[in-house]
Structures are given as structure tokens and as C-alpha cells.
Amino acid sequence: MSLLVHRLLQQPDPGYPILVEEDTQWTLNELREKVVRLASSLQAKGIQPGDRVAIMFMNQKEYLLSFFAILYAGAVVVPINITLPPEDIIHVILNSGTKLVLTTAAFAAKFEGKPIPAWVANQPPELAEAKTFPSLETAIEAGDPNFPEVSYGDADTLRLLMYTSGTTGKPKGVMLSENNLASNLDGIEPVLKISEQDRLLLALPLFHAYGQIIGLYALQSKAPLYLVPNFAPKKIIQTLVEHQITILPLVPTMFSVLLGSIQRIGADKLANLKACVSGGASLPEKLLHQIETALDLVVLEGYGLTETAPVLAVNSREHGSIPRSVGKALPNVTLKLVNEQGETIPWQPGEVSGEGEILAKGANIMLGYYNLPEETAQAFDAEGYFKTGDLGHFDAEGNLFISGGRKKDLIIKAGENIAPVRIEEALHGHPAILHVAVIGIPDEKLGEDIMACVELKPDHTATEAELKKFCLEHLPPFMVPAVIQFCPELPKNQTGKILKNQLKTQYSQILQTNGSPA
């Protein structure tokens, strides 16, 4: 039986809508009935226990409906990032062995003439040959409201296959069990302490691990979840005000953009907002203080990966924010740091640890990478700890600081290891900068040098010389970027995370065309 279905959907209906999207509201009972009916139709469509069923939706109620219906039918959920190019989406479908895709007509139309499995959508004429339900609504209506749940494996069986965007090559599948997710929900609960008195706004995409765990946690807490289809500041502000939202989870780039809108309307209209949650990327200290000052609340920064289902550490509502720290490890997660030789870096209360790669162990850690046994083996150490690839250290109280960013992002300049995050933090202090990403660029003499790609705030200006002088005032000379590239808009994924690999690709093309910028 599905652990998550029983845990999140079989609890008593609280008597108020728990999913709200635009003018549509579903109570828990309504969601539960739709889940059972859709699961029945999935089985009638030929879906067997263990089959892969993909879902392609924006932040819609249909995402969570489909998620639970697939589990109820004994199948495996394959969430697909709708912003991926069609080639990558097809790779996910084929690599996972997906037999059915639940989506909308708009997304299905993107695959005209391409080899796809059967679709559940409002089917356009161009895909008339595809075997499909007329619509998701029709599938629900046709389903049996008394359909019995299908058993498949146990709580540690593969039930969720999430594809990471990856740093190179095609997306790879992260295998997760229901126990992985349930364990993460258990770890989050005593730290964030969200209750049925709270109201959450979710503009983070549900197809990403961060947005998905927030959605599931809201259901577990019986806190009404207000879905905004994508990051639209005007719509978010409207929802915050009209529905008296108390909890707002976003990523740093979203907070940065939203801050201007908040300052324009006045924070007094958002008096019900009690806490913000930040994840997905490092939260600059200046931005943290700006949000907390503007809204008179606490910002809780967390940290995790898709492979860890996803949260590993987060600041608690009880202790509040700690600048540049993601707080302590969840109560059911163990973290350790290792040096370049893989040796554990010692730490004890009252002392600050050395810096090293962050490794994690707990029931939330993935089963492995799908059909990639060698990569799976390399992702764990001899003691079963997962290697995050991130660098950090502990303070005297055991709070984790992601002090060096990604291990692979380190810039090695003349033998000196330089963490981009430190330079980014400094540049974020400049009043003209909205977003910044620091990358390594090839240099014949130094091996690598530093390039800062910056996106300026609207109606602000800055020169390369001005920003280099600013860096020199806040950083040692060897950390001052050799090149500062002004970008109209930095490339970002759906969650607002800056795509450094895309920047590196763009830069290498410029280098090949124009030669070294020095």
C-alpha cells in the first residue's frame, strides 16, 4: 500500500479547502475521491504495478492529483520539468520507460511528430493517432470511486523517479522511495512547525524537489496550499494580500525580484506573513537582512538536493535565521565533512570545523541513480554517506555554512582554491547589482582566472572599473574578477537558479571567437 497516500490523504478532512488555485478549491475529501477515480482509469488504461507514469503540469492541482493517483495505482511517478527542451523531455520519457504521460493539450502539442507514448490530455488533432483519454477530467469521471488501492512493494521500493538537470549531458534519474519522502517530512516538521492555522503560497514548481516537498508538507500539516502557476510577482503579491498567506517559500532570485514589489505596496498589507523559507541556492546576507527588515519576519534558509529528498538542513522557526548558514541538520539526518583524501574532518561542540565536502546519511537519501550503477557507487563513501559535492563548515553550535559552494565550481587560480560564493556575496553588496554568478575561465599563465557575470537592477548603471574597485574594497586582490560581463538577464532555470554551465558555454564561445579578454 502507498505510505504517502495513507499518511497524507487518509487523515480526516479538516472541513476547509486544502488546495486552492485561482477560483477553484478542493477539500481533502474531494482530492481523495478524484485520486481514487483517476487511479481506476489508469488501471483501465493498462497501467500495471511498477509501470512508470509521467506527469507534466505547472503548479496546478492536477500535479498533486496525478502524483497520488499514480501511487494509489501502484505505479512509479516520473515528474517532468516542463521547461526542458523537447529533446530532453523525450530523453526522460524514454530513459525512464514511461508508459503514459499525464499532461495538458498545450504541452502535448510540443511533441507533434515526435516518438512519444500515450498521452492523457485534451488531445489536439495533430496527435489524434495517440491513444489517449479525451481529457483528465473525463478520466476522473469515468473512474470507479470504490476502486481498491493497488499494492506494490514496500516503503523502500522505487516509487518516484526525479530527473536532475545535471551539470553535463542528459538529465539522470534519481530513484526515491516513499520512505525517503516520509522521512524528510518527519525531519522537517519539528523544525518548520507549520500547522493548520498557516496558509502557504507555492510559486515554486512542483516538479522540482523543493516545491514538491513543500506541497506534501502542506498537506501533512493540513495547511491550505495556494498554488500560483509560475513566478509572477504581481500575482504573488495579490495572493499574499487577498488570502492572508503566512508562509512564503521561494529561492533567492525570486525574493530579490519580489522585494521591489513589496516595498512599493507597503509591508503593512502583508502583516499576516510570518516566515519566509529560502532554498535552491545560497541566500546573500544583504538580501536576507533586506527581506527581514522590509517584512519584519524571519527568513529560514535551508539546504538539500534532489538526491536527499531533498532537505538536509534548515534554520528553525524557534531559533530564527543565521546569516550565511542553513542551520542544523534535520533531526533524522547525519552530516559530516571530509577533506580531499576522504578523511573525516573532526568537529565537536564549541569549536569551528575546518572546511570540507558535505556528506549526508539518513532514511531520506536516494536509492541510487536509475540504470547508472557506477555513478551510484561513486556517490557514496564506504560508510554509506552520500557525497553532496558541496563544501562547507560547522560553527561552534553545529550550524552548517555552505562556505565554498559546489566542490566542482571551485576556481583554481595559480594553485589557489577560490570559492565563487565568496566573490558573489561581496558583489551582492553593490547597490546596482540584482544577480551575479562567478565562474572560472581558462588562463594560459594562471590555469584559471575569475569572471563575474552580473545582471543590474532596472534603472541602475555600473562600469567594470567601478565593480572591480568595489571588489578590491571587500576582497583580497587575488579574488578580484579579471573580467566582469554585463548580462541583460542571467540564464536561470524554473526555480530561479542561475545556470552557470550555460554561462561557461557562452563564455567559451566568445573566447574562441575573440580570444582571451585579457
CATH architecture of the largest domain: 3-Layer(aba) Sandwich
Q: Provide the domain count.
A: 3
- The gyration radius over C-alpha positions equals 23 Å
CATH H-level superfamily title of the largest domain? ANL, N-terminal domain
Provide mean pLDDT, rounded: 89
What report would you give on this structure?
The chain is of the alpha/beta class and 518 residues long. The protein has three domains: 3-153, 3-Layer(aba) Sandwich (Rossmann fold); 179-405, 3-Layer(aba) Sandwich (Rossmann fold), CATH 3.40.50.12780; 410-514, ANL, C-terminal domain (GMP Synthetase, Chain A, domain 3), CATH 3.30.300.30. It contains 15 helices and 26 strands. The strands form seven sheets. The protein has a five-stranded parallel sheet with strand order 4-3-5-6-7, sandwiched between helices. It has a five-stranded mixed sheet with strand order 12-13-14-15-16. Helix 2 crosses helix 6 (136-142) and helix 10 runs parallel beside helix 11. The radius of gyration is 23 Å and the shape is globular. The chain starts with a helix and ends with a helix.
Keywords summarizing the entry:
518 residues, alpha/beta, Rossmann fold, GMP Synthetase, Chain A, domain 3, 3 domains, 5-stranded parallel β-sheet, 5-stranded mixed β-sheet, 31% helix, globular
What are the SSEs and their pairings?
Elements: H1 3-9, E1 19-21, E2 24-26, H2 28-44, E3 52-55, H3 61-72, E4 76-79, H4 86-96, E5 98-102, H5 105-108, E6 118-120, E7 132-133, H6 136-142, E8 158-164, E9 172-177, H7 178-192, E10 200-202, H8 209-221, E11 225-227, H9 233-242, E12 247-250, H10 252-265, E13 275-278, H11 285-295, E14 298-304, E15 311-314, E16 328-329, E17 333-338, E18 356-362, E19 368-369, H12 373-378, E20 386-394, E21 400-406, E22 411-413, E23 416-418, H13 420-427, E24 433-443, E25 447-456, H14 464-474, E26 483-486, H15 500-514
Parallel strand pairs: 1-11, 3-4, 3-5, 5-6, 6-7, 10-11, 12-13, 13-14, 25-26
Antiparallel strand pairs: 1-2, 8-9, 9-19, 14-15, 15-16, 17-18, 18-20, 20-21, 22-23, 24-25
